[in-house]
Amino acid sequence: MTGVSSAKVSKLQQQGQRSYRKGDFKAAIEAFGQALNQQDVDIIGILDNRAAAYSKLGQHDQARRDARQMIKRSRAQRVPLPDERGYLRCAKVLLLEGKPEKALELYAYGLKTLPKDHPRRELLSQLHLKLQDNMNKSLADPMTVLPLELIVYILEYLEFSELVVLFRVSRSWAAVLMSLPNLFMHLDLSRARRNVPTSAILKYIKGSRTQLTHATIMKLFPGDKIRILDMLGRFHDSRQLKSLIISSEIPTSTEYFARFLAALPQLERIAIYGIRSSAWAAIFQSGWPRTLPNLKTIALQSGHTAIPNSHAHPLDLLNLLSEREQHTYPNLEELVLSWCPERYMPYVFKPVSPSLSARLPPLRRIDFRGVTPGPNFLSVLPSTLEELHVQGGGSISPFLEIDATKTLPNLTSLVLKDLRWLDWQVFWALAVNSKAPLRALQIDACFNVNVGLFPRTMDEMVTVNPDLKSLNHLSLVNMPDVTTDYVGELIEGFTKLKILDLSHTKITGFLVRVLADRRTDPNWNGAILEHVVVRGCESVSSDVVPYAEARGLHVYR
């Protein structure tokens, strides 16, 4: 290096250092860059200075690039002792980036590279040990350092499946979990990926101090099913159990159903998705309770055919019809029955009672799948009903008794799906004569209901039931009578509609454009739709979607 060049490099480096001390890091970077362009310079030292300036500006990528260049230059130099500055600078940049693990690896790599007699090796070793100690402190077991109140607060937010994983962390974690019985009040096996052994279930029950309030039993080994059922059937001391859900993997007889009801007086919800029939004698012997004041939800699903006369149908419930003051289920709010036999055999829902004034419990929701309503179905519906969903069932039209004075003053959701027996008269009784304040109405594949009568009878419908004017969700799915002209009259009459589902009908893309244009038409007095569903409508092309979306109408194809 000539004297002139050396002086210039020194001047540029000093200029960069002065700018760095003043906080003008951009000027410092520029000066260091000019210094690097000179010949025969201390490249590692200047790169170190520039990397520091880059770090001050938060430009860690450039700083790390200079630091790695320092390491490469050091390894390329033919000198007795390699330069340690590249390792120090690069580790510092990694720490600023929040990557202590990478910095620790770099310190270790530097110690491996530097010879033992290197004068700066001790500094590198000290920084390595200090960082390692800090990381070990940050990885302290939270179960040993956090207050118990905070641990409980965090654990209560976890799902049961997540708590099970924590058992495998360590014995100390398992001990803490087992000391908190509130975490095990709901035994939920619904998310288990593998079959759960009986020993694990017993451990979880033990964790609750045998004070379970909810139990969802699934994923059992075949040989354990009867054992678990027998164990649950003997829960006479689990007086606080409030919810019991048994999956379809565990066949449960009506006899055991009766035992559960008798043994668990605080039960609020019971769902059995694989219930099977039992002999009437066994059911009566098990002692069906006279009253279940806490029971709010019953959900039963079955495909098991009963032996005629001697066995009860698996979906039959004793004393479902009663006088209000003597009701077995005085507070039942939800009844879900699903019938799905392997070979078709209709199940008719026809609860009986010697009293003509007997009614169903004060249900708020009825959901029947594959169940055919019996003749007295309409007359026994409770006035408390808010949601009625009837889907599938027998193809033979039952003789439904129509009571023109029957009202359902709380019914807001009515779903009628795939009902071959449903005709206009029954629909009128449910939706119009009932004075139901419907907000959601769905008619799907009910081919004996001539929905083409809607526009022609709309004035009469809203005269008989003025609350129909407030309908905001209407689904007419798989209905051949639904056409473009028909829908135009419909939205003009039901002015509060926001959601319209016309899937699998004959409507066209022209209708969707009209519905979208109505949103911005100041002279339009009908419904201003927000969502329209047109899945399976072959005459609705994809180009109408952006047109409608641009006008605020959401289209689902």
TrEMBL record:
<feature type="domain" description="F-box">
    <location>
        <begin position="140"/>
        <end position="187"/>
    </location>
</feature>
<dbReference type="InterPro" id="IPR011990">
    <property type="entry name" value="TPR-like_helical_dom_sf"/>
</dbReference>
<keyword id="KW-0677">Repeat</keyword>
<keyword id="KW-0802">TPR repeat</keyword>
<dbReference type="InterPro" id="IPR032675">
    <property type="entry name" value="LRR_dom_sf"/>
</dbReference>
<dbReference type="GO" id="GO:0051879">
    <property type="term" value="F:Hsp90 protein binding"/>
</dbReference>
<dbReference type="Pfam" id="PF12937">
    <property type="entry name" value="F-box-like"/>
</dbReference>
<dbReference type="InterPro" id="IPR001810">
    <property type="entry name" value="F-box_dom"/>
</dbReference>
<protein>
    <recommendedName>
        <fullName>F-box domain-containing protein</fullName>
    </recommendedName>
</protein>
<dbReference type="InterPro" id="IPR036047">
    <property type="entry name" value="F-box-like_dom_sf"/>
</dbReference>
<dbReference type="InterPro" id="IPR019734">
    <property type="entry name" value="TPR_rpt"/>
</dbReference>
